Amino acid sequence: MRRSIKALFWIGVYLALVLAPVILLLTTPRLPQRAFWREFAVALGFAGLSLMGFQFIPTARLECVANVFPTDTLYFFHHWTSIAATLFIAAHPVLLVANNPRVLILFDLPNAPWRARAGIAAGVAVVLLTAVSVWRQGFNLNYEPWRFLHNVLAVGATGLTLWHIFGVRYYLAVPAQRALWIALPALWVVLFSYVRIYKPWVMRQHPYRIAAVREERGDCWTVAVEPIGHNGLTFEVGQFAWLTVDRSPFGLREHPFSITSSAEEPHTLCFTIKALGDFTSQVKELEPGTRVYVDGPYGLFSMEEHPAPGYVFAAGGIGSAPMISMLRTMADRGDERPLWMIYGSVSWDDVTFREELTALEERLNLKVIHVLEEPPPGWEGETGYITADVLDRHLPQNREELIYFVSGPIPMIRLVKKDLRELDIPLRRIEEEQYEMA
To answer: CATH number of the domain at 208-298, please?
Structure first.
């Protein structure tokens, strides 16, 4: 309940900040002869800029926000509010022209005033920003160049839009509006400085180094890092952190990975990483002693956040990473609660942590159920995918009392959640962790 109250509070703060320009536009005096559609177009432009200015907050990893909302939810919100901001900004000139076709003269760039040029350039930047974000994979943009382009376009679009607003000046004649449009960019600069300057500076004061890199099944590698000259960090099992490897924390190349080590051994952090992309495919080549910076922990995919008399873990592939941290920690703590691990893999050789899961069945009240897409000859276990039938065969009678952690590829998560709902498991008892955040 306490987290719900915090969530409502921060939602209220966000809405107040985003809607403040529109509220002022509606409540401050303005000339009566100005047409409704002209005012509505301006309101959409203000709302679009305000949304855009605060867009980096969901993804900025501010503790006051990250400790209240699930990371997946924040990125989902960021995605759709970005699209909403683009639509608002695009509708602004369309409605102005529809209301008064003479406005088209402002699109004659060689002869248009600079305020109009800035507005057009801002609109183009916003459309490009949204396009390269929504269709990044279609454009074959790797993460690092995409993120650099994303930041450049976002800052450029915001700056150009402010130039446009201050150039028009009509609405800034009202002291309250003028004060607001000075205060909002100032707040954006403060938040941006905190995220891009202060936090990397703090990380630089708390470096780590790679202690070991070891191979796991399923084309995965575990990277163990240890703090240099400080006590490291404490974390809740199931959380993740962003790693910057062999680069400055002020750069843009960082990657999120689940912590897989036990919370009872916080001095050494372990991250198990599957070779899926440019960086992850190079993890096996990392050398002990390499400098690493850790930003975290983050996430609410944790047993501490969701106490229950027992837990069910449904994992697909490397989705087992946060769950192995939970199991290792529970084993180290001597936890006797009943546990079920339903693990979907392509083949028997692809089962990451296979031998350790067998050993953990001896240390914990744990039942591991492997589900293989391509079982070996003579396999007598579950085959295919994690389905409602598989779940129904292995879950206990008191299944409604348990908490379910589901992690893996997005299609797998959706199917397992659907199957759990078919078994009458309440949504409030299902927690998910996705890996496609950008």
So the answer is: 2.40.30.10
8 Å CB contact between 427 and 339: no
Q: What are the sequence ranges of the domains in the chain?
A: 2-203, 208-298, 311-433
Beta-carbon contacts of residue 200 (< 8 Å; ≥ 6 apart): 248, 249, 250, 293
C-alpha of 383 from chain center: 32
Task: State the CB neighbour count (10 A cutoff) for residue 432.
Answer: 19
What pLDDT, in 10s, does the model give residues 165-201?
888 877 777 788 888 888 888 888 888 888 889 999 9
Peptide bond into 297 cis (omega under 30): yes
Given pLDDT bands bounded at 50, 70 and 90, which one contains residue 230? very high
Largest CA distance in the chain: 83
Q: What is the CATH number of domain 2-203?
A: 1.20.120
- pLDDT band, very low/low/confident/very high, at 59 (cuts 50, 70, 90): confident
For the segment 266-279, the average pLDDT, to the nearest whole number, is 86
Question: Is it the case that residue 400 has pLDDT exceeding 80?
Answer: yes
Distances in whole angstroms, Cα of residue 209 to Cα of each of 52, 63, 204, 224, 426: 37, 25, 12, 9, 43
Fold exhibited by the domain 311-433: Rossmann fold (3.40.50)
